[in-house]
């Protein structure tokens, strides 16, 4: 009896306790927006990889590799007078890297190397000292180290096997930063947040969330949405910019995205957004299969005749049609829409054709993106 009363009391308390709604699309600001002053910068350079086991550039087909070798040896004080070398243990490569924001001199970067000539593999090579420059022509890093190649190749006289790409690789922590970026984070007078998925509703919600926080912390609003992608945050006089950004990026915002359907006809991939809706429409899908079979017949001449052997063509054509059911689609939400498409029993390529037809009929309340 006591157990029954306890269960009834708990049920009554659950009915009185309000249930807070959970936002399925709530995310932190740091996950949906990036700091404009905190973007990466691309670096590029030209270098040589040495130590290859006969898989480098052929100097006759890649003359720039020989010119680079001669220039490098001359800078090292080695005379290059003489005939042309036939060694294939060197390869010319382009070296690329991304300079992260607020990087300081002395820290290291990963670099990517890609062959320029006719080298067959960079496995086992070593990248020699290569300067990496930015868009302004200044040297920001210097790269050097052993190259790691994930692909491999093997060949014999009559067969060869290749897996992955052997003419590109990486040098982990192979570049050392020598120069820092001119701008400083502390020198900024405000913060500009850039949305990774531009949307006016999300930008306004970010500004409202930041202003609610600032009203309690600093006594006034500091955020203003500029457009669908940028939200400007002014720095309060008593605030530290680094601490302010750390507090703002952890605020939770309910995101919003436009209804969109992405279709990739090459791979047969269909991605349907959560807000996609379909007005009431009837759909009929039928698969038409045409099979053509060629069975030529050989006709021999009669014995003791002067006839010639001839080939008589014979073609059989069969036509099959299946799946001609008519289904009514009315997708007020994603689950209903997917269930309606599956009820027709079509493959992904058929779903692509159906979605295109629904869009042409004006019943698809979403943007259709065909890749």
Automatic annotation (TrEMBL):
Signal peptide per UniProt: 1-24
Entry coiled-coil feature ranges: none
Superkingdom of origin organism: Bacteria
One GO location term (cellular component): outer membrane-bounded periplasmic space
Compartment(s) where it occurs, according to its Swiss-Prot or TrEMBL record: Bacterial flagellum basal body
Annotated keywords: Bacterial flagellum, Cell projection, Cilium, Flagellum, Periplasm, Signal
GO biological process, one term: bacterial-type flagellum-dependent cell motility
InterPro entries linked: Flag_FlgI
Alphabetized Pfam families for the sequence: FlgI (PF02119)
GO molecular function, one term: structural molecule activity
NCBIfam families in the cross-refs: PRK05303.1 (NF003676)
Family (UniProt): Belongs to the FlgI family.
HAMAP family: FlgI (MF_00416)
Subunit structure of this chain's protein: The basal body constitutes a major portion of the flagellar organelle and consists of four rings (L,P,S, and M) mounted on a central rod.
Protein name: Flagellar P-ring protein
Species whose genome carries this gene: Rhizobium rhizoryzae
Gene: flgI
